């Protein structure tokens, strides 16, 4: 597997576009299209929030029931959440218009929205935006980048990634674009992440991979503890690579799954790192936990702790907040067995051992906490399972961004 | 029942003191004593954090096993958490010294600590502080206030409260002192709250009251989502009012329980209102929920939401974040049935009805959000249970306080 330039248009047979549609903001790209020249097998994971946005409700149905998918249309600025029947009608109208323009079935069009909860979409602008998207769409690398740019809200930079690998003699490519920044919290937590691949893969295999992989990638990040109404992670596989169809639990399935995981992990980390107001990425690795679920709970609890996040922002090696966050994670463990350290390029910087803090050089600790990423390791000494979670620091800018988001 | 001046020394037979012991800070009171002239029935609730501070581990045992309690000794500045065997020995030494000075059994002395996790207590200063406390202790109102002052960490003001009521012809008094501010989150969430009463009450009755009442008071507040290692809520009842002993499930039990609830609710709200960096109290009342547990989950989720807290700070009536927080609370409900409004002195200011936002006057909403307390009501239209939770806004000062707490 190797990393290659580009995003969703890196795999064969995919086109994309990002255009200015004036949905909420002026002078910025705010509508995106991902289009496949061939029918795609689709799988997805969506928010666990009981209040699901209209496009999420529709996409869940399409991914489950439609024979294939051909396109994803995304708008930013307005979430189309808590919009009742009007919101669902906006989705249907968007899909119907996009289908007509693209010459594909209406039920092969998925929709993603992100932005303010409440307002109804300005459908005339959406329709004008769709026309622009369809004429702009192209397989060029730049078109994928335009789409990555158009799906951003408070993100500070577009997030795309692509890898390729060999499967059954064919070169298979996987590409992704994602946006995150705020209202980001484990439990299908990424606001929007779209992955394309030219792999030929069965629906069963793709669905199984998606279901398992989100647990260790998008569901292991948090920016602020708020699980969005619009979270959507969608994978489209169009088979253009002409590899033998990947079936569950085969060596090819494992290889493809590993590559998909690399893409998802990369994007999840990028979302955490670019969280609202963030100045640094916080990674927490839990090792030797009693169970996989415990390891995940413990790691997520640390990177979700406001006090730990604020301490990292202040470059204060206040490990008491880390052990405290492990303690209220819901996982069972013996505090007397735990060791905590910073991982500085593979070297241990120990903070706490077997129930007690240890003396350490505060200046050195401050240096470690001044880096752009901070790696915390919690060794539970209680089993052999591990998990990693990613978050970011809590800063003045987070409060600033969210104290006045709507205006 | 009527509110009276004072705190823990308002009930008959209780003395208190607060002195400067130099535990961590200079020139401020940082050790407190509550002393009862008579043996007390005691009940308590403690942190659910798996990492429990040494004094919590000791107090849980004393409250459960000791025949009676005579005193509580509190220090601030150092939490005595994650301090291993040395921490437990500090507790034993403190209790033994206090017991000798007060002439009471060692197992009748409870200990509370709050402050930084990790460091070991400076026992010479603790012992010197104990001597000062024992000579300063008095039944005066001012002594209770001194104790309320001495238990503060980042609190901006002392929190004491007292009520009296008639039971079986006797006047019964209940008094309280509490401290909160940071690391405050539902699940036995107050850092420290001590209630004294001169009521005669059976251990069974007091234990039952405490267990039930924390669910709707201290466990319904949140400042930052971090459940402390040191949370302790302790009630001491010394019987000096000479009322007939209160037994479970009697009219007297109900009356006393109602008064105790009023004290706990008052103190819980005071803790939320004075949360770290807070500029206002946020109250969320959930009505017509399907179950009591759902109502509590929903209300707590709203007041714990960082995005809602930041929006209230910014006086932005961004109700989408409220409905979103209800949605990820874990409680089941139909978003199409929900109504959201602000309660402005009993008058409804509607934001969202039956799955949709409604048009409202943004300037009026800003006015409502400019008050020192904001009351959000969520009508689930799904049953007849209700619950109230209290929190505070998320501000620049929260980040400032917690970006550099140790130094």
As for the CATH topology of the largest domain in chain A, it is L-amino peptidase D-ALA esterase/amidase
Q: Could you name the CATH homologous superfamily of the largest domain in chain A?
A: L-amino peptidase D-ALA esterase/amidase
What ranges of chain A have pLDDT less than 50 throughout 5 or more consecutive residues? 186-190
Summarize model confidence as the mean pLDDT of chain A. 89
How many extended strands of chain A?
15
Along the chain, the helix and strand elements of chain A come as: EEEHEHEHHEEEHEHEHHHEEEHEEH
> What's the architecture of the largest domain in chain A, going by CATH?
4-Layer Sandwich
Strand content of chain A: 25-35%
List the helices and strands and how they pair.
2 copies of one chain form a homodimer.
Chain A: E1 2-4, E2 14-19, E3 31-46, H1 54-65, E4 69-78, H2 84-102, E5 109-116, H3 123-136, H4 141-150, E6 159-167, E7 170-179, E8 192-197, H5 203-216, E9 232-237, H6 251-273, E10 281-289, H7 292-304, H8 306-313, H9 319-327, E11 339-344, E12 347-353, E13 356-357, H10 362-369, E14 373-379, E15 385-392, H11 396-403
Parallel strand pairs in A: 4-5, 8-9, 10-14
Antiparallel strand pairs in A: 1-6, 2-3, 3-4, 3-9, 6-7, 7-8, 10-15, 11-12, 11-14, 12-13
């Amino acid at each position: 597997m190797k990393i290659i330039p580009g995003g969703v248009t890196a795999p064969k047979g995919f086109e994309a576009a990002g255009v200015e549609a004036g949905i909420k903001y002026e002078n910025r790209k705010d509508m995106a299209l991902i289009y496949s020249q061939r029918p795609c097998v689709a799988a997805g994971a969506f928010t666990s929030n009981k209040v699901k946005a209209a496009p999420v409700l529709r996409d869940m149905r399409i991914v489950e029931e439609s024979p294939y998918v051909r396109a994803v249309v995304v708008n930013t600025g307005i979430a189309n959440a808590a919009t009742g029947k009007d919101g669902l009608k906006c989705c249907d109208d968007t899909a119907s218009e996009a289908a007509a323009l693209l010459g594909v079935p209406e039920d092969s069009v998925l929709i993603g929205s992100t932005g303010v909860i409440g307002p109804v979409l300005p459908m005339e602008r959406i329709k004008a935006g769709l026309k622009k998207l369809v004429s702009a769409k192209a397989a060029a690398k730049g078109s994928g980048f335009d789409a990555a740019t158009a799906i951003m809200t408070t993100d500070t930079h577009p997030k795309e990634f692509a890898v390729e690998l060999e499967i059954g003699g064919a070169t298979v490519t996987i590409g992704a674009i994602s946006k995150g920044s705020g209202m980001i919290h484990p439990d299908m937590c990424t606001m929007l992440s779209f992955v394309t691949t030219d792999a030929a893969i069965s629906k069963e295999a793709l669905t199984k991979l998606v279901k398992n992989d989100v647990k260790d990638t998008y569901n292991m990040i948090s920016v602020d503890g708020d699980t969005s109404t619009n979270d959507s992670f969608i994978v489209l596989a169009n088979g253009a690579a002409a590899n033998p169809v990947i079936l569950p639990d085969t060596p090819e399935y494992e290889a493809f799954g590993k590559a998909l995981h690399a893409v998802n992990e990369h994007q999840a980390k990028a979302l955490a790192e670019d969280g609202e107001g963030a100045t640094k990425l916080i990674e927490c690795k839990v090792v030797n936990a009693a169970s996989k679920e415990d390891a995940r709970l413990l790691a997520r609890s640390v990177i979700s702790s406001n006090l730990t996040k604020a301490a990292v922002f202040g470059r204060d090696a206040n490990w008491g907040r880390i052990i405290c966050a492990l303690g209220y994670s819901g996982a069972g463990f013996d505090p007397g067995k735990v060791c905590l350290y910073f991982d500085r390029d593979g070297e241990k910087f120990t903070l706490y051992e077997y129930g007690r803090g240890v003396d350490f050089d505060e200046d050195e600790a401050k240096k470690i906490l001044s880096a752009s990423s901070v790696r915390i390791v919690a060794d539970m000494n209680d089993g052999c399972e591990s998990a990693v979670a990613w978050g970011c620091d809590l800063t003045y800018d987070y409060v600033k961004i969210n104290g006045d988001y709507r205006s």
